[in-house]
């Protein structure tokens, strides 16, 4: 099947080329993102393959349908950037990679926690400048601290298990309780209780109308002073303006973000020679206790292998009209 890949980087090409030898698909790689304006690049293709920040709205889907696109393949788990109703109306199948190394994102959440807590990023810079002082680098033990996990799906489970390994008390909120986690010592509580009791809150639920801005002014008030908030899930789980208020009042003691609501025009790009126009992210970066990474939670060799093979299998299933096990309905 001929497929146009959008928003591709060198690593996408490397991993898809490595795995595509076993398949007979004709892949065209584009660096540009998919939008109504770039749909024409997919002419002559039967499918498009996109990533987290391609904005696939109704107009884009209508234009894709007009040029004969039958499938939208997401190289990621989240699908909040695709208008599913519009795709259904046009008979375009949407497929994703539901589970690729959940440990990759869980371990990145831990990396954010450990860096914010033990300030290794600051220590690294200090030592390079021959500054061997440890003033202001004090951290806290994770042992016996309460860690609240919002969303105990694949990533949340992997994360909860890591934190149990540290001897932390792990509490969780999800619409479904996971029995295996309960047996391991995770206690499910209401969302309010999780906010009230946690020293660290880590978000692992999808972005839905119910979860949008789950971290907001009202909920911040329920939290412990100096709480650490980690978001490796989707930017809009956090109301950024409210969290900036929380940082200014010191209610929020640490903020670790791998995702950001307005990341679409910023993340995955080298803007080092540009003037950053987004004042909100500039404000966030001005706090000494905020750590931002640009959506790299998924970025491990193991995850890239799985993303490539699952996407290519999805494409084969679409071509052969087989059962679409990874269809988003
Ligand atoms: P999953 O589908 O396995 O788990 C999501 C969990 O959230 C489920 O247990 C579900 O019941 C729960 N949930 C749904 N609505 C909820 C609500 N209102 N409150 C609390 N929990 C709720 O998904 P997975 O694989 O664990 O991924 C989680 C999220 O991580 C994805 O939606 C995606 O946004 C993000 N992600 C981020 C990546 C990164 O590179 N930073 C890479 C992959 C995923």
TrEMBL record:
Its EC number is 1.1.1.28. Residues 3-328 form the D-isomer specific 2-hydroxyacid dehydrogenase catalytic domain. GO terms for molecular function: D-lactate dehydrogenase (NAD+) activity. PROSITE patterns: D_2_HYDROXYACID_DH_2 (PS00670), D_2_HYDROXYACID_DH_3 (PS00671). InterPro entries: D-isomer_2_OHA_DH_cat_dom, D-isomer_DH_CS, D-isomer_DH_NAD-bd, D-LDH-like, NAD(P)-bd_dom_sf. Residues 110-297 form the D-isomer specific 2-hydroxyacid dehydrogenase NAD-binding domain. It comes from the Bacteria. The keyword Amino-acid biosynthesis does not apply. Keywords: NAD, Oxidoreductase. Pfam families: 2-Hacid_dh, 2-Hacid_dh_C. Belongs to the D-isomer specific 2-hydroxyacid dehydrogenase family. This is 2-hydroxyacid dehydrogenase. It comes from Pseudopedobacter beijingensis.
